[in-house]
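Format notes (please read before filing issues)

Several people have asked whether sequences and structure tokens are stored in separate files. They are not. Every record keeps both together, in the order shown below: the sequence lines, then the token lines. Line labels are part of the format and must not be stripped during preprocessing.
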Amino acid sequence: MRDHFEIRDHDAAGRIGELTVPRAGVTVETPALLPVINPNIETIDPSRLRAEFGADMLITNSYIIRTTDDVRERALEEGLHDMLGFDGAIMTDSGSFQLAEYGEIDTTTTEILEFQRDIGSDVGTPVDIPTPPDVSREQAESDLEITRQALADAEAVDVGDMLVNAPVQGSTYPDLRERAGREAAATDLDVFPVGAVVPMMNGYRYDDMVDAVAAAKRGLAEDCPVHLFGAGHPMMFALAVALGCDLFDSAAYALMARDGRYLTVSGTEQLEDLDYLPCSCPICHEHTPEELRAAQGEEQESLLAEHNLHVTFEELRRVKQAIRDGDLLELVEKRARGHPAMVDGYRALLEHADQLERIDSASKGTFFGLSDESARRPEVGRHHDRLARLSVPDPLLCSEYGAPSDHDYDEVWRVVPPFGPFPRALSETYPLTAEVPDRTDPAAERAAAEGVRALVRANPDTDVTLAHEGWSTDALEVVPESVTLEDLNADGYRDRNDGNAAGDDSDATVPAESRSESQ
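Then the structure lines:
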């Protein structure tokens, strides 16, 4: 067990945790954002980051410090905390980014970790190989072997109480990412960054980013704090947290401010195009778009950077509250609607629903069915899996409408897309308290049909009738042939079968053992 990281709350694979950073004497609540500080370019004074923005941790580049003579001497003499004026935790990168950008650096893992230790870094990083997307498998495997050796070298360095990163690489090969995660988790290193995803995010390849992180998470243990290197745009935090990422670092707040770009939770705007500021942070409260445009050079850059940081930290707080409330996936879906590439990322996330389900909370806030994608959420699959555990009467009517006033069935169960059938006594248990549209979509109907199929497969001798409200042909084709189908929308059906309200449990009779297993 890694005793420096403790998980407090869960939703999907997202978690609120506490990362203890012993050298700094600081405990960082995760998910956490680490603003990137360029030691040669000060956009926002680091001393303001903790008090004004809530940053308990930042990241800077030890390779730049080491190769800049005057900065190196200051760092060695004063230590990073005094040099930057920051009393939180400080993570340092190693030069791997420069290696990826320029092809070579003149340091080794041992040298750079010893330097990071000597300047007072709280979390250090070895020299790994950030393998870009879409390279040949041969190159990805070769680079991964170099990274594996870097982690072995890092384990051998006397770093004192400095934590050390164990980057997880593997390009766009899920099996290599998973293997790299497993090997990293087997070391005695401390924090686990998923690397080389910046090119994917810059190319709006959020679905590929999701697959890379999901693969790495399959290899990593649950007690491994996960850092998504280079991820700093607020619109993707909910998605990445739902995957199980705990730390993010952002240079975006400063880089985009330099280009006159204004961050929002649904994308990026050009300051010159804004007639209104859709934010209530101190910068937007005190300035109009005209005033920001009138500011020139460093003044405008600083004001925009402050806004960008405010909106970024605000979104992380919103993500944490969503975890506490149990509606993180609803927030992911809302953010996904801001950009088509984010929709791809959300759909890719749901392709890993089985992986999320294993650690997702069994009971939380109300499930909201918001779109076709809601039918693929882990809660739906969990319900289908649990149908095999219920005691099923014979014969059984599964109905969307309710119980007919006169019937010969032993029991009448509810059917609610996308979940499918369940005993009416379970109507008040999560996720069957779901809020779903009255006008169901084909995906929800198909998912409900898959629930019927799961029930029949678990109980092949039961005589099941399904009363549905005009389901699509695609959904009905999923229902086993042994099931009797009745269309509630057929002419005269409701007149002939005057039913109780769908939520009326007066005729519900479910065995006690079924209730106890499902509640």
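For reference, the curators noted about this record: The first helix runs from residue 49 to 53. The mean pLDDT is 90.
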